[in-house]
Amino acid sequence: MTIQKLNRRTFLQGTGIALALPWFESFAAKNSQGNVPKRFVSIYHPDGVGLPLKEDPAWKDWSWFPQGGEKDFRLSKVLDVLEPLRQDITIYSGLSHPTARNVHGHSNADQYLTGAPVGGFGPYKNSISLDQVYADVIGEETRYSSLVLSTNGGTGAPRGSHTQSFNHQGRAIPAMSKPKQIFDSLFVIQGKDARDKLARTKSSLDYLISSTRAMKKKLSAHDRQTLEQYLDSVRDTEIKLVKAQKWIDEPMPKVDGSQLNLDVDPKQARLYLQTMYELMYLAFVNDSTRAITYQMGRENGEGPHDLLAQSVGFPNAHSLTHDVKKPGGWKNLGLYNRFQAEEFGRFVQKLKDTPEVNGEGNMLDNTFAMHGSASSSFHLSRNYPIISAGGAKLGFKNGRYLKFGKGNEDNQAGAGQTSDAVFKGDVTVEEEPLAHLYVNILQRLGVVTDEFAGYKGGLRGV
């Protein structure tokens, strides 16, 4: 490797294996791409969240939305795992896509990042997703214009998408789901000989460590520490993905969804999700991409995503939304939503703990991380539960609970529902188009636009 050519796209090379490097301050002045990266990541979870009625004893502890005002809000037990990040997050209510408000929640995930009128039946045509609009602008700066991930993988079917990303023609972009495949795409393995050697070794890094010796002499003390931490993180992720891969490849067990499966080992399901988050983190650290989507699960139907509920002791996730009327049902769904928030928070904290090398602040300051669903309570395609984190240096002010629209200030419209029939009900409250928030996001990521999905202008106060 030629040290003089070291920049954001530099790779350690060794025995057919290449490892993308993080950004070093020692070479920042020589780097023609001197601007701090602006990053976007969207995490989607299916099946909505728990919204018991205000008079239900479960409301105080297990309703997903906070209680209170913009800054004096109280997080319930569902989201209190994010309390340490309170000043780094914003929670939104009263947002949805107008074209999907009467679409059943089993068919609404396709339009979460597009806002397209795909409908619940009949002819199907989608449009470009938010991440791909940004990828079109920033994609030339990175090795991958975007990273598209999901637990299920592939594209799925219309109105049953396995991916959140759609191109200019509205075609679904296949998502990667296997941790090993993602790892190999980020830390390139080239040629059959390299693959054979890697199969016989404990870690691909064993071939690369020696390549860092000459480099270290050119690095500052801070950069040497950065390199060591980065290599340790990659090695740790590589070890974890072996177990995570085993979990994703296991066939779906036949279980009774109404009963706890006490024989389930929750570590593997949780480990899979943590590994996916670590791969996203590493993709940002080595600047392989600046746009990532991850669909935690598809709407409607069995699949590996349904087993993520093993992490909190349940056999599958989807049945939790149908069992809220049973004793402890709201709590059970709340515990699963809590698990989702906890792992998102772990990812956010990791970004916050990682300083930006070529600029002030940390990686979270320059990253807009979004976590949400296209359903609120019981597959109702309204009042999307959305959390954002970071973006302080992009212009986002956090530590807030923002309520939009009128007539649903306590988020009780559709709450307490235990039947799918609610999705056919009349829209009795006023909500803002989610596309307006997407305009805010694109503008602060540097995209010159005042419109998304046919809606002009951003949201007030964001």
UniProtKB/TrEMBL annotation:
It comes from the Bacteria. This is DUF1552 domain-containing protein. PROSITE patterns: TAT (PS51318). It comes from Lentisphaera araneosa HTCC2155. It holds the Pfam family HXXSHH.
